[in-house]
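Dear colleagues,

For the upcoming journal club I promised to circulate an example of a predicted protein-ligand complex. I picked one with adenosine-5'-diphosphate because it came up in last month's discussion. The inputs are reproduced below in full, followed by the predicted structure.
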Amino acid sequence: MFDKVLIANRGEIALRIHRACREMGIHTVAVHSEIDANAMHVRLADESVCIGPALASESYLNIPAIVSAAEITGADAIHPGYGFLSENARFAEIVEEHGITFIGPKAEHIRLMGDKLAARDKAIELGIPIVPGSKGAVDNMDDAAEIAAEIGYPVLLKAAAGGGGRGITLVRSEEDLRGAFVRTQREAEVSFSDGSLYVEKFLERPRHIEIQIAGDLHGNVVHLGERDCSVQRRHQKVVEEAPSPALNAEQRVQIGERVAAAMKKMGYSNLGTVEFLYENGEFYFIEMNTRLQVEHPVTEMTTGIDLVREQIKLASGAPLSFTQDEVELTGHAIECRVTAENAKTFAPSPGKIRTYHSPGGMNVRVDSALYAGYSVPPSYDSLIAKLIVHGRNRNECLMRLRRALEEFVIDGIETTIPLHQALLANQDFANGDYDVKWLERLLESES
Ligand code: ADP
Ligand code: ADP
Ligand code: MG
C-alpha cells in the first residue's frame, strides 16, 4: 500500500480523498493555488505545496508543478479527484513515467473514452446500444446537414472532447444548423482545444441513468448499481439518486451485468461510470467517465462501500475487496449539489462565509470544505457542498432530506439551498416523475 498520496485537486473532493487516506494510514500531500492557501484540505493534509496562482491553468492544471510537488515530497501516488487533470491521459502517463502511481484507470482507457466518438465506436463493439448519430466526426456544414436530415430533427451537435455539460447544442431545424455549428465548434476549440463535432439524435424526454463500475488489475469487474441523475440544468447534474425510481430490479441487474461484462472485456480497471439516456424502456449509451464522480456518495450510501478507499486499493494492485454477489444495495440515497449561486438567477455568489452550520443526525452526510470565515474564491467551480442522505426507502429519504435542508445554514453568500427546498416540495419530484429537461421546464414556468 502507498505511504503517501498527493491529492491533485481542491475543495470538497480533496477533503474527501484526504479522509480516505487518513483512515487507511496513508500520509497526504495537498497542493494548492495561492488563493487556496487557507483551504480546509490544505489545513488537514500532512504536508502542502503551493503550485501557482489562482488561475487553474497555472496551478491545478500545471502538470510540471504537480509532478515536482510529488517528487519533492516523496509521494508514491497521485489522486486526481474529478475535473482538472482527472481525465487527462497524458498526465496519467507522465505521472507513471516518474515512477508514481496514478490513482485511476489505465491511460489508454482514459484516452479512448475521453474521445466521445471513439467511445461510441467502442460501445458498439462491446454490444452496448448508443444514441443514433453520425458514424464519425462531421467536418463541415454540409455533412452535418446531411446526417441531421437522415437522423431527423431535432439533433444535438456535440463536441467529441466535451465535458461538464459544455459543447452541446440543440438544433431544431436545418435553418438553425449553420449558426449552431460555428458556435459549437468555436466553444469546443476554446474549451477543449479540439473542435471535432458529431451529431446525435436529440431524445425529448429521457432520464440520465449511469452505472458505477469498479475493476481490479487482475481482470475482475463488478457493477455497483445505477444512479439517476436526471435532475439537471444546462446539462449539469443538480440532484442524484439511487436507485432510479424508473427501474425495476430486473432491469437494474440486466444493465449492470451488461456494463460490467463489457468493461471486463475491455480490461478496464479502477472506477468508472458508464452514462446512458433511458427512454421508453431502452438504454442508449452517451459517454463514459473514467474517474471518480461527484455523485459517488450516493452509491456509497446504498452499497456501504467506500469508493475512494477501494479506488486507492485497486490502484495499488489489490484485488477487488468484494465479489458481485457481495454487493448488496440497501435503501435509498439522494444527493443535493449546493452551489455558491443565487437560487433563482444562478448568478455566481463567491465571498466570505459568516455562519456555517451543517445538518446532522442519522444517515445524513455533508461533503464540503466550507467553514465559517472561509472565503469562496470566484476562480473555480461553484460547487461548495454536497448533502447526501440515506433512508430505508425513498419516502424516508425524502423526509430526511427535507429535514436536513432546513438545518443547513450557510450565511454570507447566496446558495442553491432554497432551490433544493423547492424541489423537495414538488409533487413530480416526490413521485420520481422527472426527465433531464424537467427542472428547466419547472424553472421556466416559475420565472
Ligand atoms: P458531458 O460530457 O458534458 O457530461 P453528456 O454527453 O454526458 O455530456 O451529456 C450531458 C447531458 O446532456 C445528459 O445527461 C443529457 O441530459 C443531455 N444529453 C446528452 N445527449 C443527449 C441526447 N442525445 N438527447 C437528449 N439529451 C442529451
Ligand atoms: P483494507 O484492505 O482496506 O485494509 P481490511 O481488509 O482491513 O481493509 O478490511 C477492513 C474492513 O473494511 C473489512 O470488514 C472489509 O470488508 C471492509 N472494507 C474493505 N474495503 C472496503 C471498502 N472499499 N469499502 C467498505 N468497506 C471495506
Ligand atoms: Mg456526462
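Two points we might discuss: The chain is about 35% helix and 25% strand. The first strand starts at residue 4 and ends at 7.

See you all on Thursday,
B. R.
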